[in-house]
Every structure is written in structure tokens, then in C-alpha cells.
Automatic annotation (TrEMBL):
Free-text function comment from the UniProt entry: Catalyzes the two-step NADP-dependent conversion of GDP-4-dehydro-6-deoxy-D-mannose to GDP-fucose, involving an epimerase and a reductase reaction.
Protein name: GDP-L-fucose synthase
Domain NAD-dependent epimerase/dehydratase: 10-246
Classification via InterPro entries: Epimerase_deHydtase (IPR001509), GDP_fucose/colitose_synth (IPR028614), NAD(P)-bd_dom_sf (IPR036291)
PANTHER family: GDP-L-FUCOSE SYNTHASE
Lineage start: Eukaryota, Metazoa, Chordata, Craniata, Vertebrata
GO molecular function term, any single one: isomerase activity
Length: 322
């Protein structure tokens, strides 16, 4: 008996970024697409999603049935400190345009990407999906955090009013190939990768901002991509889900630095500049909900993933975002 496969046209916003490229690798290079699925990866060159008319035009062109929403204004701690208002305004505009246009075009499912920085600064640990709105986020990136929280507000209201099952994932710190390796504006791990690469090349010390004592959970972009596909296809809740390694895998920034030093075989001195901010000292997240659904999922070992990321950056230095 022949099984009918419903066509699924998946539009990926932010398709040229870290997570978008990881999903593209899984569905195209590694054959992760299923029968009946068509995948469309957008970049900022295709449309300005802060513009409602351009957002509508891109939906009119591709007529997606499903959307993976990754497009955002993003950056590391020091960019947030400089541009808090820009992070708020641009991300609110992007998210409202994408989610509202998806509803207007009858998109069956949207899976947006949030961040653990949306959680309250003053909280108990570990944080979980029920705690998003329990208090203000850390002041250092409040514009971005509040804009991302509004995605959850939008999703719940859209379900209440129209029955749409739009949801969101909440990853911990993502890293991998195709990241933004900017020393000034990148997140901590890719910025350190770039710093270590330059320090080895020039024979200078590797300088790390802060004390190195801040704690973080890291998820490799390819692991996140595989979990993202599972959420798109099988996760049916409107409530968001944290996608992360476990609490026991939380590590310090010094541990991250050591892994990068090992991957590059860097032998020079490492200097911690304690005059620079550590940012939020910890934001330990629980992956208990994920484990209830996917007890079998195996994460790439951290040092293996760091080595692959460093090797990719070395091989693609000239074209990497930095």
C-alpha cells in the first residue's frame, strides 16, 4: 500500500547564519530531509524582515507551510552593552512581521529560536521553561531578552485566538562552523577561537575578557540542528522547550579557553583581563523536558565539537564572518 506524503515547504529565516547553516548541512549534505519536504534557506539579502512589505513579499513568493525562524539581530556581551535599544527595536520588528505574516498565509507551524538570556536575572537554578516571565532579565542585554520573550507571548496569544501551534526552542550557548567569529561583537566561544588563532599566528599572549569563572552550557550547532528538526516534525506543544546539554555539563569560560588552546595547540601565555565584565555569572538551564521526550539523544563531546569548530575556522579564515 502506497503511503501518501503531504508536501511540506519549510522556509528558514536567517538561513545563512550559524544555526541555519547547520540545518542546511543536516537536511542537504547529510540527507536529513524527508520525502515530501522542500527546504528554502533565506538570508538578509533576500528580504529585510524588519520591513512588513518585504516580509509579505517573501512569503508570497515561497508560500511556506512551515517556518523555522532564526533571523535576528544578535551579538556578544559588549555589543549588547552598546546597542541595547537597537536589539529591542530590530528584533521586535522582525519577530512580529514573521509571526503575523505566517499566520496570514496559513503557515501550519513556526518554530522560533529564543535564548537563555530571556530568563530572569534573579532566579533559582536550574531555570526551566515555566520561569521565563518570572522577573526582569539581566540588565546587560535586556533589549534583546525582552524582544525574544515577546515571541512566547505572541505564540500563546496566537494559539488562544486562532489555534495556531507556533512554538519556540530555547538553546543554551550555540557554537560551531559558520559562527560570527568577531572579536568585538561575537559570542564568547567564537571570539576566543578567533583570538587564539591570531595569538598563535602572531606569537602574542591570548587575552581573555573577564576572570574566566563565568559558567555556561554550550550546544554544538549540528546537535541543535538535529533537535530543531525533531521539534519541527514531532514536538506539538505551544510552550517552548529548552534544547541543551545537562546541568552536569556546565563549564567555566576558563574550561572553554583551555579546550580552544588544546585544539589549536597554542603554547603561549593566557592572560585574563579582570577589568572586563564577566556578564551574567551563571544561567544554568534544565534539559529535563527535552530528556522526557528524547532520553536517547547523544550530544557531541564538547572538546570534539570545539576541535571541529577551530579546524573549520582555520580552513575558512578568509571567508568566515569576523
Amino acid at each position: 500500500m502506497e503511503v501518501k506524503v503531504d508536501p511540506k515547504r519549510v522556509l528558514v529565516t536567517g538561513g545563512s547564519g550559524l544555526v541555519g547553516k547547520a540545518i542546511e548541512r543536516i537536511v542537504i549534505e547529510e540527507g536529513g530531509a524527508r520525502e515530501g519536504e522542500e527546504w528554502i534557506f533565506l538570508s538578509s539579502k533576500d528580504a529585510d524582515l524588519t520591513n512588513a512589505a518585504q516580509t509579505r513579499a517573501i512569503f508570497e513568493k515561497h508560500r511556506p507551510t512551515h517556518v523555522i525562524h532564526l533571523a535576528a539581530m544578535v551579538g556578544g556581551l559588549f555589543r549588547h552593552l552598546r546597542q541595547n535599544l537597537d536589539f529591542w527595536r530590530q528584533n521586535v520588528a522582525i519577530n512580529d512581521n514573521v509571526l503575523h505574516t505566517a499566520h496570514e498565509f496559513g503557515v501550519v507551524k513556526v518554530v522560533s529560536c529564543l535564548s537563555t538570556c530571556i530568563f530572569p536575572d534573579k532566579t533559582t537554578y536550574p531555570i526551566d521553561e515555566t520561569m521565563i516571565h518570572n522577573g526582569p532579565p539581566h540588565w546587560s542585554n535586556s533589549g534583546y531578552a525582552y524582544a525574544k520573550r515577546m515571541v512566547d507571548v505572541h505564540n500563546r496569544a496566537c494559539f488562544q485566538q486562532y489555534g495556531r501551534r507556533y512554538t519556540a526552542i530555547i538553546p543554551t550557548n550555540i557554537f560551531g562552523p559558520h559562527d560570527n567569529f568577531s572579536i568585538e561583537d561575537g559570542h564568547v566561544l567564537p571570539a576566543l577561537v578567533h583570538k587564539a588563532y591570531k595569538a598563535k599566528l602572531t606569537g602574542t599572549p591570548l587575552e581573555v575578557c573577564g576572570s574566566g569563572s563565568g559558567l555556561r552550557q554550550f550546544i554544538y550547532s549540528l546537535d541543535l540542528a538535529r533537535l530543531y528538526l525533531w521539534v519541527l516534525r514531532e514536538y506539538d506543544e505551544v510552550e517552548p522547550i529548552i534544547l541543551s546539554v545537562g546541568e552536569e555539563d556546565e563549564i567555566t569560560i576558563k574550561d572553554v579557553t583551555d579546550a580552544i588552546v588544546e585544539a589549536f595547540e597554542f603554547t603561549g601565555p593566557v592572560v585574563y583581563d579582570t577589568s572586563k565584565s564577566d556578564g551574567q555569572m551563571k544561567k544554568t538551564a534544565s534539559n529535563a523536558k527535552l530528556r522526557r521526550y528524547r532520553p536517547d539523544f547523544t550530544f557531541t563531546p564538547f572538546r570534539t565539537a570545539v576541535k571541529e569548530t577551530c579546524d573549520w575556522f582555520s580552513a575558512n579564515h578568509d571567508r568566515a564572518r569576523k
